[in-house]
């Protein structure tokens, strides 16, 4: 998990509509139809949430500076030129996702390293000053729309480069973000959600460092920019029988990271602060062991992957399978072949 004493996994484990519906209804091979959504206090209608659930299966794409420094949680000190793909082909990623039967994809626009995959105006630490200056975010969204896959953005609130006097989990002890960092994050989210068109899912990682006040503001702000987007505040590694409101609320859906819901099925109706909410679940897990591509990391056994998909269907949650591109900027053939076998074995 990298060289830091605290890993992202350990930190999480211990931390206390319209276009979407239309695309979904025409999709084939989605997960089994979920139970009808009950009307709760949530922002989105039951129909919008059910449309997202019917997507069933998506691709998580962890790619960026961590790929090149071979460290999931880098210190943010590598020069931007360290990011240097020599065969970058974002369209290949989405072709692989489509051919695997995936209906949506979520790209890591900025991870712990703080390096940005789009030409942000908020920091010099981006593709603008890197070995390859391609706006990966733009290519990703274009490829998704060309190939009939819904685009989603991941954004990490733990940033080891753009610190603004914040205290990150890498520092040990209590972690928090300053108002200066929060202003920076708001501005970057604005760029992402106003420059690339409709985004089906907005995935905010490590939301606990934001604090309840800013997190609530950010949720409402994202909803204002993209009223139909599904907002994920990642609640982390757990079966999510008990949802950590202090860490991840508000959110439209619940993350089940490197875990599966309990055998009885995933509880979608949640009572939060005196109100009832319908909150679907999304399992996220890498195809191998690591989130980012690591030399020698291979896909898990075919039967293990097929069983995971089956359990997600049976227990009523989506599966967001991480398939990381390599240093060339391509999804490796071993992963492509594993996904093709998975589609056949799991009947996707």
Question: Which features does this protein show?
Answer:
globular; 8-stranded parallel sheet; TIM Barrel; 348 residues; two-stranded antiparallel sheet; disordered N terminus; single chain; 33% helix; 11 helices; alpha/beta; 10 strands
Structural features, described:
It is a single chain. With 348 residues, the protein is an alpha/beta fold. The chain has a single domain, classed as Glycosidases (TIM Barrel, Alpha-Beta Barrel), CATH 3.20.20.80. The protein is 33% helix and 15% strand. α2 crosses α3, α7 runs parallel beside α8 and α10 packs across α11.
Give the overall silhouette.
globular
- N-to-C SSE string, H for helix and E for strand: HHHEHHEHEHEHEHEEEEHEH
How far apart lie the N and C ends? 31 Å
Fourth CATH level, the homologous superfamily: Glycosidases
Characterize the biggest β-sheet.
8 strands, parallel
Strand order, sheet with most strands? 5-4-3-2-1-10-9-6
Overall strand count: 10
Q: Ranges with pLDDT <50 over ≥5 residues?
A: 1-36
Arithmetic mean of pLDDT:
91
The structural domain count equals: 1
Strand content: 5-15%
- CATH fold-type name: TIM Barrel
State Rg. 19 Å
Based on helices, strands and strand pairing, what is the structural class?
alpha/beta
Query: Could you say what the CATH architecture is?
Result: Alpha-Beta Barrel
Helix content: 25-40%
The number of helical runs is: 11
CATH classification, class level: Alpha Beta
């Amino acid at each position: 998990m990298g060289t830091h004493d605290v890993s992202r996994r350990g930190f999480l484990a211990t931390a206390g509509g319209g276009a979407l519906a239309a695309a979904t209804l025409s999709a084939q091979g989605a997960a089994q139809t979920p139970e009808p959504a009950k009307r709760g206090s949530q922002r989105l209608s039951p129909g919008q949430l059910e449309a997202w659930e019917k997507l069933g299966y998506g691709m998580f794409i962890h790619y960026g500076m961590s790929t090149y420094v071979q460290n999931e949680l880098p210190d943010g000190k590598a020069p931007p030129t360290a990011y240097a793909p020599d065969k970058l082909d974002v369209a290949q990623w989405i072709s692989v996702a489509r051919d695997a039967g995936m209906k949506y994809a979520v790209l890591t626009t900025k991870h712990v390293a703080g390096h940005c995959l789009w030409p942000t105006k908020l920091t010099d630490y981006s593709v603008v000053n890197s070995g390859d200056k391609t706006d990966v975010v733009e290519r990703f969204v274009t490829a998704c729309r060309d190939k009939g896959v819904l685009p989603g953005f991941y954004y990490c609130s733990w940033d080891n480069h753009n610190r603004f006097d914040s205290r990150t989990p890498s520092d040990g002890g209590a972690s928090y973000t300053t108002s200066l960092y929060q202003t920076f994050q708001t501005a970057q989210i604005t760029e992402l959600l106003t420059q690339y068109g409709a985004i089906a899912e907005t995935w905010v990682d490590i939301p606990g460092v934001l604090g309840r006040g800013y997190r609530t503001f950010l949720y409402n702000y994202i909803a204002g920019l993209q009223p139909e987007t599904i907002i994920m505040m990642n609640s982390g590694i757990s079966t999510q029988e008990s949802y950590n409101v202090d860490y991840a609320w508000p959110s439209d859906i619940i993350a089940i990271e490197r875990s599966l819901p309990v055998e009885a099925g995933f509880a979608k109706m949640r009572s939060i602060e005196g109100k009832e909410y319908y909150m679907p679940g999304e399992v996220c897990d890498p195809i191998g062991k690591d989130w980012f591509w690591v030399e020698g990391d291979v896909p898990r056994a075919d039967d293990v992957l097929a069983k995971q998909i089956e359990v997600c269907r049976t227990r009523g949650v989506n599966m967001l399978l991480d398939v990381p591109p390599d240093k060339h900027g391509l999804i490796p053939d071993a992963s492509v072949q594993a996904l093709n076998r998975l589609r056949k074995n799991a009947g996707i």
